[in-house]
Write a structure and sequence with these properties.
2 helices, six-stranded antiparallel beta sheet, 232 residues, globular, Jelly Rolls, alpha+beta
Length: 232
């Protein structure tokens, strides 16, 4: 019984250690303050390692870096069509329980209906969620326009992808923000093809994959030996 009690205590201690180490951390983040986009990319992340790119069917698209959401720079593009996108590519090696967040807005003549999609190891994209982008200086709900001085949280998006285990510990993961329709919406979908959409502070977070303590596991194994012997 003493060995069983010791083993139980050691298992509980090991579980506590794993729980305490299982905290979310930023894997990669783009603020565009040093990459300062003026092309479709690739643009290096400011935190961690990764690349941001844009794709538009139109060769007339201009990629620029207007003011961000509480920062000086962002990643912007005009001349949108259905299935045009921003893409963010990283490796999630060593991480699980993936989360993504970012800020996004557009001009009053820009696209308002997008979807978040993901791809693992080049296996093809899967749609995750549809969302609406509020135009800058939106009259309702009266958020105001982006400035470098302070972040407006009403333009922020955050999604928990921790249930998608394929994203865990992957050598290659791509996220896309894809324009999904030209239909009018509230706010107003695509009003004019020349309109802009811009993204800022794109962040991919996760929790470190826990590694069992070899020392602790050794103690647990030693404590269990008498139990195994008695069963024989």
């Amino acid at each position: 019984m003493k060995s069983l009690a010791i083993a139980t205590l050691l298992f509980a201690s090991q579980a506590a250690l794993l729980t305490n180490s299982h905290a979310a951390t930023v894997i990669t983040k783009w603020t565009f303050e040093t990459s300062i986009p003026a092309t479709a990319g690739p643009h290096a992340a400011e935190v961690g390692t990764g690349s941001a790119t844009g794709f538009h069917a139109s060769g007339a698209t201009a990629y620029t870096n207007p003011v961000g959401n509480g920062s000086v720079e962002s990643f912007s593009a005009n001349t949108w069509a259905v299935n045009d996108y921003f893409q963010f590519s990283i490796a999630t090696t060593g991480y699980e329980d993936i989360l993504v967040s970012w800020s996004q807005t557009g001009s009053s003549t820009g696209p308002g209906e997008f979807k978040l999609a993901y791809q693992v190891n080049g296996g093809g994209f899967t749609d995750f969620v549809n969302y609406i982008v509020l135009p800058n200086q939106v009259a309702a709900p009266g958020l105001g326009s982006w400035t470098s001085g302070s972040e407006i949280t009403g333009y922020n998006y955050s999604f928990d992808l921790s249930a998608i285990t394929g994203l865990d510990n992957a050598a290659s993961v791509d996220f896309r923000l894809i324009m999904r329709t030209t239909a009018d919406s509230t706010p107003p979908g695509l009003v004019a093809a020349a309109g802009t959409s811009r993204v800022d502070n794109f962040t991919i977070s996760g929790t470190a994959v826990p590694e069992p303590s070899t020392g602790m596991l050794g103690l647990i194994a030693a404590a269990c030996i008498p139990l195994r012997r008695r069963r024989k």
